[in-house]
Amino acid sequence: MIGLHFIYAAGGACFAAFAILSALDSDNAKRWGNAAFYALLAASFWAGDLIGDIGNGLLVLGLVLIAGFKLMGRGARVTTNDAQRADESTRRGNRLFLPALVIPVVALAGTFAFKRFPDIFDSKQVTLVGLTFGVIAALGVCYAWFRPRPVTPFAEGVRLMDSVGWAAVLPQMLASLGAVFALAGVGEVVGGIAGGIIPDGSLFGAVVVYALGMAAFTMIMGNAFAAFPVMFAGVGVPVLIGIFSGDPVRVAAIGMLAGFCGTLMTPMAANFNLVPAALLELKDQNAVIKAQIPTAIPLLAANVLLIYFLAFP
Amino acid sequence: MWVLLGIAVIVAGFMLRFNPLLVVAISALVTGLAAGINPVEVLAAFGKSFNDARYVSVIYIVLPVIGILERHGLQQRARTAISALKGATVGRLLLGYLVFRQLTAALGLTSIAGPAQTVRPLVAPMAQAAAEAQGADPDSDDVPAIAAATDNIGLFFGEDIFIAIGSILLMKGVLEGYGMFVEPLDLAVWAIPTAICAFLIHGFRLLMLDRKLARARTSSPAVEASK
Fold first, then answer.
1. Interval A282-311 mean pLDDT
2. Quick one: pLDDT at residue B224?
3. Which residues on chain B are in Cβ contact (under 8 Å) with A60?
C-alpha cells in the first residue's frame, strides 16, 4: 500500500542527497555539520521505525548537539546571478510557472483520485502522497525542459535548505516536548492554576482566562494542539461548561482558534514564523511575527467575544 | 509544581537566545527529572514522538523543484507578470491570496500552498514588485513579511473549517474523553465565525497598506523638492 512508507522513502532520499552535496561543498567551512544534520534526518526517514524509541532519542540528541554547538552554516555553492535569471525569465516567459503549478495540481487531483483506490493508497495519507507525486512529476518536467545535470536541482534545493537550517526540526522537537509534558502531568498543574485565577461568578472573566490562557500556553509550546487539552481540562470543562452551561462544541472550536492566535505571535512556532523569514532571507528573523501581531491581537479579542456571545444559553 | 520548571527553562532559554533545539531538549530533561521519570525513559518518549511526527518535515522535498525553477528565473518572471497587470496593488494582490488560501484550506488543501511552495517563489516577489511600483522601499523586510503572514493567517483560519484536519480530530478525541460525542462537522461549522473575523481584520490591514504607500508617495516628492 502506498502511504507513509512511500512518503518517508522520498523524504529520506531528498535529505540523503542534501547530505552528500553538503559533504562535497568544500568551500563551506561548516560542511561536515550540515552533512551530518541532513544525514541524521535521512536516517530518521528511512530507518526511524527500525531503531526503536531510544535509538530515535539518540538520533534527536545528535541533531540537538549539531545545532546547539552551531556546527551548521550556509553552503557556498554558486548559482545563476540576477542578470542571467532576468534574461532567462524573459526568454522562457510565463511557461516558467507551469512546473511550479504541477505540484498543487497533482496534489489536488491525487487527493480526490487516490481515495477511490483504498487498496492501493492509504486513504488517511492521500494529500501527502499526492504532494509527493506532484514533486516527482514537477522534477521530471524540470529535467526534461531545462536538461540540468542530475544533481543540479538538489544543489539548488540544499541552498534553500541551508537557509532554513536547524529550524526545520523544531516542530518535531516541540511535538516530542509535548509528549514529555503529558507524561509529567504539566497540563494538570497549568490548568489548575488557570482555573484558580478566575474571578468568582464572572462569566466574562472565565472566558477571558480561557481564551488568553489558550493563546499564552500556545506561545510557550509553539503549538495550539498542546495547549488545547490543558486549557479545556483546566477551565473549559469545569467552569465554562460545568458552572455556566456553555455549549461544549462552541467552547472547544472557538477556543482552539484563540490558541491559533497565539501561534501567530511566537518564535516557538518555527515552521510558520521562523522558517518563512529564513526562506525569504529577511534581515530580522522575527519580521513575520511582527507582521502578524496586529492581526492576532484584535482577532484574539474577537474570539473572546465570540465565545462569550455564542457559546452560552 | 516542580514540573513547571520545564516551562521556565523554555522562557529563560529564549530570553538568553540559546539555540531553541538545545532549550527544548533541556526543558524535556528538567521536566522529566522534576516528575521523577528517569532520563532514559524521557529519551525514549522523546524519540518516539519525534519519529511519529516525521510527516511535518516531508514538505522540504519541494525545495529541489523550487530551487531549480529559481535558477531559471521563476522569481523574476513572477515580478514581470505582476507589473504587467494594470491596477495590481500589493494590498489587492495579498487580499486575493488570503481568499484563495482560506478557501482552499477550508477544502482540506492545506499542502498546495505554503512558505516554500508559493510564498518564496511566487507571492513574495509579486507582492514586492507591486509594492515597489507603489513606491515601497525595495530593501525593506515589510512586504515579504506581510506576504508570509498572509499565508499563515489564511491557512490557520481556513483549515479548521475542514472536517478531517488534525485540530478537529484532536478536539473530537478530547471531548470524547469527557463523554461528549460530537461530529467533526459540528466543530468545523463553529470555526466559520472566527474565519470571517480573520478575513475582515487582516483584509482591512492589507487595504490600509495600499493607502499607507499612497500617502508616503504623495508626501515624499515634497521632501525631495525641499532638499
1. 96
2. 46
3. 25, 46-47, 50
Distances in Å between the Cα of A232 and the Cα atoms of A2, A159, A190, A246 are: 37, 43, 11, 12
Mean pLDDT of A77-90: 88
CB A300, CB B153: distance < 8 Å: no
**Smallest Cα–Cα separation from B180: which of A194, A246, A226, A223?**
A246
Average pLDDT, chain A: 91
Beta bridge partners of A2: A121
A170-184 helix and A52-68 helix, angle to the nearest 10 degrees? 120
Query: pLDDT tens digits, residue range A212-239?
Result: 999 999 998 888 888 898 889 889 998 9
CB contact under 8 A, B197 and A170: no
Q: Say what percent of chain A tops pLDDT 70.
A: 100
- Determine the Cα angle at B19 with ends A62 and A179, to 5°: 65
Judge whether B2 is closer than 8 Å to chain A, CB to CB. Answer: no
Contact B198, B105 (CB under 8 A): no
B77, B171, B180 ranked by CB distance to A89: nearest: B77
- State the pLDDT at residue B165: 72
Vertex A53 angle, CA A47 and A56, to 5°: 50
The verdict on a CB contact (< 8 Å) between B75 and A90 is no
Q: Which of A96, A76, A78 is CA-nearest to residue A29?
A: A76
Give CA–CA dist B130/B143, Å, rounded. Answer: 10
- pTM above threshold 0.90: no
- Does residue B22 surpass a pLDDT of 80? yes
- Of the residues A274, A280, A283, A312, the best mutation for testing chain B's interface (the one with the most B CB atoms within 10 Å of its CB) is A280
Q: Give residue for cell 522535498.
A: B61
Question: Does A28 touch chain B if contact means CB atoms closer than 8 Å?
Answer: no
Name the residue in chain A with its Cα closest to that of B183: A249
* Nearest residue to B96 via CA among B215, B208, B207, B214: B207
Closest CA to A77 of A8, A157, A150: A157
Q: Which residues of A touch B192 (CB under 8 A)?
A: none
With a CB-CB cutoff of 8 Å, which residues 5-64 of chain B face chain A?
A: 6-7, 10-11, 14, 18-22, 24-25, 27-28, 31-32, 34-35, 37, 40-64
Average pLDDT over residues B161-172: 80
Q: How many residues does chain B have?
A: 227
- Kindly state the cell numbers that stand for A133: 507525486
ipTM reported for the complex, 2 dp: 0.88
Per DSSP, chain A holds a count of helices (H) and strands (E) of 14, 0
Q: How far is A246 from chain B (nearest CA, A)?
A: 13
The candidate with the shortest Cα–Cα distance to B78, out of B9, B144, B174, is B144
Mean pLDDT, residues A35-40: 97
Residue A99: partners with Cβ closer than 8 Å, 6 or more residues away: A138, A141, A142, A145, B65, B69
Q: Are A75 and A31 in contact (CB under 8 A)?
A: yes
> A138-149: per-residue pLDDT in tens?
999 999 999 999
